[in-house]
Amino acid sequence: MGLMTIAACSGSESVMGKNLPVYIVPQGLIELDSNFSKRIGFVSSRFISCSYLWGEGNRIIINTIECTDRRRGYLRDLFRAIWNLGLEIAVRTPLGTMEQILRHYGFKKTIVADPIYGKSELWVK
């Protein structure tokens, strides 16, 4: 499982007298075919190798994603699997077709200030 740890439940954990949140999402980089990725269908048979996700709290951020075969419903299945876990999805600065897909699924456009990307769009649902 590498450096990432997956917590089995939500709630909080006490560390040195402080309550820290416990997440079901691996924090940081979520690569194709990891244990968590397989759970949500984010696998190399469906998405090309440049695709990756980012775990941040109980949110999964999509920076780069491309399906191996468009129109097969792989992205829809990924969204549903993530939402079925009770998680939020955010997509950073979508282009063209992806923006149309996000509108279709009811994502809302927000503008955020990010320390790495600067001021950018983040579509959330």
Q: Mind explaining what this structure looks like?
A:
The protein is of the alpha+beta class and 125 residues long. The protein has one domain: Aminopeptidase, CATH 3.40.630. Helix content is 21%, strand content 34%. The chain has three helices and eight strands. The chain has a six-stranded mixed sheet. A two-stranded antiparallel sheet has the order 1-2. The two termini are 28 Å apart. The model is unreliable at 1-14 (pLDDT under 50).
Task: From the alpha carbons, calculate the radius of gyration and give it in angstroms.
Answer: 15 Å
Q: Taking all residues together, what is the mean pLDDT?
A: 86
CATH architectural type: 3-Layer(aba) Sandwich
The CATH topology assignment is: Aminopeptidase
| Fraction of residues in H or I helices | 10-25%
Strand proportion = 25-35%
Describe the biggest sheet? Answer: 6 strands, mixed
Q: Sketch the topology as an H/E string, one letter per element.
A: EEEHEEHEHEE
What are the segments in which pLDDT stays under 50 over at least 5 consecutive residues? 1-14
